[in-house]
């Protein structure tokens, strides 16, 4: 009551000299009884206590200003003042209902909202903001409630997995309280409210549940096939309790090294194991409900392969020791080490020894070192490459496992020439050649001389062969005939491109005149019309036929022995060569009856030679 609200002012255009005409008096025409105004100061104040914004937020007050001190005859003016009540936090939040009911499936995901509650506050802005908490109930650790900043709702979410078979319902007590509290109104009561929330869990068809989230099995690498490595168990958490079948995800066991009993989940060995190849095997076991194959669970199973002593120790690398000829007795020639693929719990411990027949070796001995290595020592000095260049020393290596395993490694010891400080200079076999008196360079020179002599002999024989061949034609082969040599034999009838047809032509017959050089003909004949040179592309067979036709129709053709050169014999000709160069000089030894068997082309030639034979007989 009487709280200052605002002050208004009015102006009068009259001159103050008129006395009271400029004196203004203010009054409220509308807005009573909520507000009052002082007539002379124009200060507006509340006229009622405990004004409620939630009941009415805005007021319109009409103010009148009258001059002449408010007396009769004065002029007046009015204005409207809008007064808005500002909010204070004088109202607590209130739930719309005291009891909320929600239901949720037991397989709901964690963090998933299952319901909303809301506490209404008549205040606005910051005064209406509330926070929600679960203050009581049997599900305080299973559920949580958060505030939606936009709608000011309380959102209930799941914190832990639900299980219908374990607990079917929960009861929570939820509280909503104002965040910003005005101390002036604390006497009005607590600025908070509570409500009860009941949550019912509904049954869902859940996948099988394994008795353990992971399994660890151990097996020795020499375990027998089909031996049981371990067992996994699972059950259906639903009330119906469907039977479970087990299987191995073969994507995790590509080599199919393990099997599982589908009924009881016992894992067995299907193939032999080798720890040295793979120490761990990780497989996945699948559990499936028989009544609903879509309900599937998986669990990882780690199988550790335990070591057994099944590998013999051996040299860590192939060793080759070098022994100086000028070495001293007791000198360490080589230090060797051994490795074992097995992995005993207490580490490796190797025993070294010589073969029984090598125990009394006159040249070398061995000594075990503290670091599990072995030293090879020379028993005496005076080793010589001339006497023996390489020594082989078999060494037996044994481990301390159960049962103990052993192997024999051979150390190659090569005798070498060394400098005075023990640096190896040469380990080859040159020492064996030196006593003969010839060095390696001399041997190479001798070998080169032998090769040179062989080359000279071959060249000499080749030249002698060429020298024995005759350079001129023998008398009995000189038939006084015109002979033209052709080195190009051609490729037969099918080959028309391999040689030049012009080489078959008689150079003297290009102009058509073919004179005889051995016997002058009795008849004179007219020269034949010469043919133009035949181009290279002309068929050889056609060319020979033309020449044969000219010879057959030539009246001056000799009935005596003559030479007609036919360079084309044809491929696979049964007649063989037509040349008489290889024939005997004596016609008496010739029988030309076979010419009549060669066909029409040689008929005329056969008749001529037959006539000649008959003349001789007469």
UniProtKB/TrEMBL annotation:
InterPro entries in UniProt: Cadherin, Cadherin-like_dom, Cadherin-like_sf, Cadherin_CS, Cadherin_Y-type_LIR, Catenin-bd_sf
SMART domains noted in UniProt: CA (SM00112)
Compartment(s) of residence: Cell membrane
Domain of life: Eukaryota
Keywords recorded for this protein, A-Z: Calcium, Cell adhesion, Cell membrane, Cleavage on pair of basic residues, Glycoprotein, Membrane, Metal-binding, Repeat, Signal, Transmembrane, Transmembrane helix
Coiled-coil regions listed in the entry: none
Keyword presence, Acyltransferase: no
Membrane topology, as annotated: Single-pass type I membrane protein
PROSITE patterns given in the database record: CADHERIN_1 (PS00232), CADHERIN_2 (PS50268)
An example Gene Ontology CC term for this record: adherens junction
Molecular function per GO: beta-catenin binding; cadherin binding; calcium ion binding
GO biological process: adherens junction organization; calcium-dependent cell-cell adhesion via plasma membrane cell adhesion molecules; cell migration; cell morphogenesis; cell-cell adhesion mediated by cadherin; cell-cell junction assembly; homophilic cell adhesion via plasma membrane adhesion molecules
Main subcellular location: membrane
Annotated stretches, region: Disordered: 572-593
Gene3D superfamilies: Cadherins, TCF3-CBD (Catenin binding domain)
PANTHER family listed in its UniProt record: CADHERIN-23, CADHERIN-8
Cited function: Cadherins are calcium-dependent cell adhesion proteins.
Protein name per Swiss-Prot or TrEMBL: CADH8 protein
Organism annotation: Hypocryptadius cinnamomeus
Lineage: Eukaryota, Metazoa, Chordata, Craniata, Vertebrata
């Amino acid at each position: 009551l009487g709280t200052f609200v605002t002050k208004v002012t009015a102006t009068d255009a009259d001159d103050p000299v008129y006395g009271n005409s400029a004196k203004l008096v203010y009054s409220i025409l509308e807005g009573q009884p909520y507000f009052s105004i002082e007539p002379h100061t124009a200060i507006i104040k509340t006229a009622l206590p405990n004004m409620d914004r939630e009941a009415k937020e805005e007021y319109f007050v009409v103010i009148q200003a009258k001059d002449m001190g408010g007396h009769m005859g004065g002029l007046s003016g009015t204005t409207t003042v809008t007064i808005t009540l500002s909010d204070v936090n004088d109202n607590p939040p209130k739930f719309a209902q005291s009891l909320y009911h929600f239901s949720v499936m037991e397989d709901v995901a964690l963090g998933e909202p299952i319901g909303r509650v809301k506490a209404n506050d008549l205040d606005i802005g910051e005064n209406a903001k509330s926070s929600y908490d679960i203050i009581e109930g049997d599900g305080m650790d299973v559920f949580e409630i958060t505030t939606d900043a936009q709608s000011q709702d309380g959102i209930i979410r799941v914190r832990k997995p639900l299980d219908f078979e374990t607990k079917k319902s929960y009861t929570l007590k939820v509280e909503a309280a104002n965040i910003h509290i005005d101390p002036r109104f604390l006497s009005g009561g607590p600025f908070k409210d509570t409500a009860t929330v009941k949550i019912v869990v509904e049954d869902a068809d859940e996948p099988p549940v394994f008795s353990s989230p992971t399994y660890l099995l151990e097996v020795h690498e020499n375990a027998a096939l089909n031996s049981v490595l371990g067992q996994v168990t699972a059950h259906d958490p639903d009330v119906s309790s469907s039977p479970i079948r087990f299987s191995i995800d073969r994507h995790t066991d590509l080599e199919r090294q393990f099997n599982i009993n589908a009924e009881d989940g016992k894992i067995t060995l299907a193939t032999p194991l080798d720890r040295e190849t793979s120490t761990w095997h990780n497989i996945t076991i699948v559990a499936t409900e028989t009544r609903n194959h879509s309900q599937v669970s998986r669990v990882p199973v780690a199988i550790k392969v335990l070591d057994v002593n099944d590998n013999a120790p051996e040299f860590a690398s192939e060793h080759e020791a070098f022994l100086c000829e000028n070495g001293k007795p007791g000198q360490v020639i080589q230090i060797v080490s051994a490795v074992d693929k097995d992995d005993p719990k207490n580490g490796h411990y190797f025993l070294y020894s010589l073969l029984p027949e090598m125990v009394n070796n006159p040249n070398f001995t061995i000594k075990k070192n503290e670091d599990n290595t072995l030293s090879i020592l020379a028993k005496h000095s005076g080793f010589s490459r001339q006497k023996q260049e390489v020594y082989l020393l078999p060494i037996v290596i044994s481990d301390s496992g159960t049962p103990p395993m052993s192997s024999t490694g051979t150390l190659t010891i090569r005798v070498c020439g060394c400098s005075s400080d023990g640096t190896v200079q040469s380990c080859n076999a040159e020492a064996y050649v030196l006593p003969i008196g010839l060095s390696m360079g001399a041997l190479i020179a001798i070998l080169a001389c032998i090769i040179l002599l062989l080359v000279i002999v071959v060249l000499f024989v080749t030249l002698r062969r060429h020298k024995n061949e005759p350079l001129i034609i023998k008398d009995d082969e000189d038939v006084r005939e015109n002979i033209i040599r052709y080195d190009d034999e051609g490729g037969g009838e099918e080959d028309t491109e391999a040689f030049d047809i012009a080489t078959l032509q008689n150079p003297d017959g290009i102009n058509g005149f073919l004179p005889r050089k051995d016997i002058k003909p009795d008849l004179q004949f007219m020269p034949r019309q010469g043919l133009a040179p035949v181009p290279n592309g002309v068929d050889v067979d056609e060319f020979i036929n033309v020449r044969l036709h000219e010879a057959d129709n030539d009246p001056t053709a000799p009935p005596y022995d003559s030479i007609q050169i036919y360079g084309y014999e044809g491929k696979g000709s049964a007649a063989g060569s037509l040349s008489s160069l290889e024939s005997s000089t004596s016609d008496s030894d010739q029988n030309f009856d076979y010419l009549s068997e060669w066909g029409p082309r040689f008929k005329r030639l056969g008749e001529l030679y037959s006539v000649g034979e008959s003349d001789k007989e007469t």
